[in-house]
Amino acid sequence: MEPLTSIDRLSLNTMTTDRWTLQEAVDGCARAGIGWIAPWRNRVAEAGLKQSGKMIRDAGLRVSSLCRGGMFPAGTAAERAARIEDNRRAIEEAAELGAEVLVLVCGPSSDKDIGEARKQVLDGIEQLVPYAREHGVKLGIEPLHPMYAAERSVIVKLSQANTMAEQLNVPDVGVVVDVFHLWWDPDLYTEIARAGERILGFHVNDWLVPVPDMLMGRGMMGDGVIELRKIRHAVEAAGYKGPIEVEIFNRRISDQPGDETLEQMKNRYLEHV
Amino acid sequence: MEPLTSIDRLSLNTMTTDRWTLQEAVDGCARAGIGWIAPWRNRVAEAGLKQSGKMIRDAGLRVSSLCRGGMFPAGTAAERAARIEDNRRAIEEAAELGAEVLVLVCGPSSDKDIGEARKQVLDGIEQLVPYAREHGVKLGIEPLHPMYAAERSVIVKLSQANTMAEQLNVPDVGVVVDVFHLWWDPDLYTEIARAGERILGFHVNDWLVPVPDMLMGRGMMGDGVIELRKIRHAVEAAGYKGPIEVEIFNRRISDQPGDETLEQMKNRYLEHV
Q1: Where do the Xylose isomerase-like TIM barrel domain residues begin and end (chains A, B) (predicted)?
Q2: Tens digits of per-residue pLDDT, B167-219?
């Protein structure tokens, strides 16, 4: 399988350098020659929305995605409506930043009824479609690892995200493939092919052995067991040619100097992805 | 959904009271009126195989399963053959103890090629079938939670275990449903129905929020988010009427006095399963 020969699709998800402000991350990308960035909303809020858009454009960066919307299920209709409102703000922010995709982390169930929560997710996304379309922002359903099913996302398999996207069947809704969340699935390659042009994002990192922490224990590419290049080829064969985000939740990595992380990221990307 | 009205199907998996020797666990079950036990092989080895069988029979207990065989993938043919030999020993032990089922935890990959590891698992189980049949022991493929894919089992969904059992298509091979490993799967109920008479075991416990530890962080029934009764009803509707094992990997629970754990187990079983 052919390696990548340039970093022109490489994107920094700001969680990877979580100690940096957005300005520091933007400057770091510019220094490192990385052309894409994927900011988290809290970093944008700190810097101010207009100012965030300006600093990203001034540095010549493009925005691969905004992280994150979602969190749809809630115990009452009023709470669910409030979540939809928050997602509308996220869509506006994505549009202002020029992000093509708003990543949806769909949320946990508010009680034990996981089936009902899944219906609330589908209903929530459906409600957002017109607003997303008006703003020229696509909604990317990101299935999370099943170990986050109780706390972060009742959407846990690519087959599930694909089924939801097919049910909605609009060009504004697709899926995001993150290797950390999906590598274990025996149906991964079938589901990547099924997703096809609906793939709106591709995230890389690695699965460490042992996992140092359930939330903050992801690895740098090459340090774990995921067949990164094989998955990248499958995603490309399905039709995805867009940016490739490095999204690593790892305290040790975010604590090291950001410039070091970016250098390592670039090398590992060419070597392993 | 109807609760259970007696504990006559309740079984103690010895991992739940991991500080107890097998003799202590057998005596504890007898005191608590629990009629089934599922020993781990290390506890049997400590007590001696013949002696273990005798103490269990003398106490009037039945053995719901022996934990565990499996661990098939390895880097060389010689290593894989050694794993098969070890599984033959486990089958002999299960037969000696009168266990109807040997639970298979299928093992991690020896390298990054998870697809090859899965083939090695299927091949390993196939090799064991004649020996299992001779000894009157059934082989129960237990899919583990995907968070254990890199370290314990490349078999991570019930659909996968069902497909393997269907491919082998012999009465000696079935599947084991453990709620901790499978509760998150949107295809769970479809796959339980598909498994049907191939279900050879049913394990209960709970998924705590937050998870205190990736390996030793399971909960007592009722302390977490799993729809235990709904799953139990589905397993019964599929045809399974056998023992229900309480298998909890949790240091806090195994550190408390075993008799307390057994009392709590009985109450929670009637209340939540």
Answers
A1: 29-264
A2: 999 999 999 999 999 999 999 999 999 999 999 999 999 999 999 999 999 99
Do the domain assignments include residue B3?
Answer: no
Name the token pair of B248: 């909890």
Contact A86, A107 (CB under 8 A): no
Strand, coil or helix: A10: strand
Report how far residue A238's alpha carbon sits from residue A234's, in angstroms, rounded to the nearest whole number. 6
A227 and B114: CB-CB below 8 Å? yes
Domain assignment of residue B253, yes or no: yes
Tell me the longest C-alpha to C-alpha distance in chain B: 51
**A115 three-class SS:** helix
Answer whether B156 sits within 8 Å of A184, measured CB to CB. yes
Q: Do A227 and B150 touch (CB under 8 A)?
A: no
CA of A209 to nearest chain B CA: how many angstroms apart?
7
Judge whether B43 lies within some domain.
Answer: yes
Q: Which residues of chain B neighbour A118 with C-beta distances below 8 Å?
A: 186
Report the C-alpha gap between A37 and A55 in whole angstroms.
12
Q: Specify if B55 maps to a domain.
A: yes
Starting at the edge strand found earlier in the chain, the sheet holding A244-246 runs A62-63, A36-38, A10-13, A244-246, A199-204, A173-178, A138-141, A101-105, A66-70
The Cα–Cα gap between A94 and A81 comes to 20
Max alpha carbon distance in chain A (Å)? 51
Which residues, including other chains, have CB under 8 Å from residue A227's CB and lie 6 or more apart? Answer: A183, B112, B113, B114
Domain span at residue B153? 10-272
DSSP states of A64-106: --EEEEE----SSHHHHHHHHHHHHHHHHHHHHHT-SEEEEE-
Residue A149: pLDDT over 90: yes
Q: Which CATH number covers residue B108?
A: 3.20.20.150
pLDDT over threshold 90, residue B1: no
Number of domains in chain B: 1
